[in-house]
Design a protein that fits this description.
heterodimer; A: alpha/beta; 7-stranded parallel beta sheet; 17 helices; B: 55 residues; alpha+beta; 1 helix; 2 strands
Chain lengths: 453, 55
């Protein structure tokens, strides 16, 4: 993401109600420095944090980026596992502890809000871990964050670790316990939840669960678990859940990281019920098979159909629902493009609007033209009544001569199908995918008819 | 001694209930053969009524 894109996301995270935004790692690059500096100064609401290794130059650089911001936090870390200390840091336990304390003190010289992470905590010797935590809390760290850096922990064990930290670190009540879980075994959310049930009161997570390797704990899952099962847990977040879906869309659109269709909470299918028995139940009473109301994550079927008769206000409202709050100048540019498109196209979908913003405001290249022409021709020839819900392209291999694989999602009445096509020419791949999906749709319709007969 | 749990694979039944994931018989047989190679203990191959029954 570039700095502009990060600022758009950070503003949306503020609307979503997150408590702390980790905006970057100021020392790592000028781009990250700039992102931390601008987000911490321009985005109102959340605490804004920069990551910093336990090194003087990192802490100083983080402060340079945060200086003058209303709510700055410095997050510093060093490994505490023998395996990391020996092979990566080439330090003894004593040296690492001394460094941690010095760097927390250095950071506290700049800001009141300091977070410390013992990296690879879940594989560290617990006695040593307790000592390090006690020392850094003594040095002024207000948050101690326990990461499962390699995603190795299982819930009972990780919950037990948090409990034992609470019981064995004498000054623990002076700090908030945080956790940071990775998803290598698919347990990031489960481990975070186990930690919360054992006393953790900050959870580090990401929108759509994106992150290093298999990703991080997903913000939307953590939030909706606590919200949906308040009866069992009685712990909540400050998240404004109606902003979850717009935030998910925004992050997916800016990063290009697609959300898997069956992803909990924000996947395309998360609220789609296909089985006859489920559908029957839902029609009679929603709570028979629906544990979360789609509106509660901001997925209300908008009653505003966007087209050429839509005005600036409706356009602005829809943009807001999609997570974009544009300056007047950018809004005008996007609105003009929207009007041009609405003249050519009967209904303007959310994806179209996202593409307009990407092109006009973010200057990301978008597809246009020949694929659309091919699709219109095929639709005309087949007289299909289906609606194209999604179109995506992936390169199967590297290089400009790679085969492109196109996936389309079509809907007609209550049938939804996926079609795929691959070819070195993306237009041919697109046409193949479309025809493949149309064939599947026909097959489904015929199957339904036979069943009725 | 390590205890084993049985793997009951319902990709072809509950998995197929994802919108857009419908498979024809030939496709199901290809997948079922691969599930056998994968070493699953039980394959739920489908529902033999016209109305798809979940749990």
């Amino acid at each position: 993401m570039n700095v502009e894109e990060k600022i758009i996301i950070a503003k949306q995270l503020a609307r979503l109600g997150v408590d702390i935004i980790e905006a970057g790692f100021a020392m790592s690059s000028p781009g990250d420095f700039d992102a931390v500096r601008r987000i911490s100064h321009e985005v109102e609401g959340p605490i804004v944090c920069s990551l910093a290794r336990a090194k003087l130059e990192d802490i100083d650089r983080a402060w340079e980026a945060l200086k003058g911001a209303p709510k700055p936090r410095i997050h510093t870390f060093i490994s505490t596992s023998d395996i990391h200390l020996k092979y990566q840091f080439k330090m003894t336990r004593e040296e690492a502890m001394k460094r941690a304390v010095e760097m927390v003190k250095r950071a506290r010289g700049y800001v009141d809000d300091v977070e410390f992470s013992p990296m690879d905590a879940s594989r560290s010797d617990v006695k040593y871990l307790y000592e390090v935590l006690e020392a850094v809390i003594g040095a002024g760290a207000g948050t101690i964050n326990i990461p499962d850096t390699v995603g190795y922990a299982i819930p009972s064990e990780f919950g037990g670790l948090i409990k034992s930290i609470k019981e064995n670190v004498p000054n623990i009540n002076k700090a908030v316990i945080s956790v940071h879980c990775h998803n290598d075994l698919g347990l990031a959310v489960a481990n975070s939840l186990a930690a919360v049930m054992n006393g953790a009161r900050q959870v580090e997570c990401t929108i759509n669960g994106i992150g290093e390797r298999a990703g991080n704990a997903s913000l939307e899952e953590i939030t909706m678990i606590l919200r949906t099962r308040k009866d069992a847990l009685n712990i909540d977040t400050h998240i404004i859940s109606e902003q979850i879906y717009p935030t998910s869309r925004l992050v997916s659109s800016i990063t290009g990281m697609m959300v898997q269709p069956n992803k909990a909470i924000v996947g395309d299918n998360a609220f789609a019920h296909e089985s006859g028995i489920h559908q029957d139940g839902l029609l009679k009473e929603k709570t028979t098979y629906e544990i979360i109301r789609p509106e509660s994550i901001g997925l209300a079927q908008s009653t505003l159909v966007m087209g050429k008769h839509s005005g600036r206000h409706a356009f602005k409202t829809r943009l807001k629902e999609l997570g974009y709050e544009l300056s007047d100048e950018n809004l005008n540019k996007a609105f003009e493009r929207f009007k041009q498109l609405a003249d050519q196209k009967k209904e303007v979908f959310d994806e179209d609007i996202e593409a307009i913003v990407a092109d006009e405001v973010l200057r990301i290249e978008i597809r246009d033209g020949p694929v659309d022409a091919a699709y219109k021709t095929i639709a005309k020839l087949t007289k299909t009544k289906s609606k194209l819900l999604r179109y995506s392209v992936n390169a199967i291999t590297g290089g400009t001569d790679a085969q492109g694989e196109v996936t389309v999602r079509l809907q007609e009445d209550d049938h939804i199908v996926l079609g795929q096509g691959a070819h070195t020419d993306i237009i041919v791949a697109s046409a193949k995918a479309y025809i493949n999906a149309l064939n599947k749709l026909e097959y489904k319709k015929r199957e339904r008819k036979e069943r009725v007969v | 001694m390590t205890e084993f749990i049985r793997i009951f694979d319902t990709t072809l039944r509950d998995g197929e209930q994802s919108p857009g994931a419908s498979m024809n018989v030939e496709e199901k047989i290809i997948i079922a053969k691969q599930l056998a190679r994968l070493g699953v203990d039980i394959i739920e191959a489908g529902t033999v009524s016209s109305l798809r029954a979940p749990p």
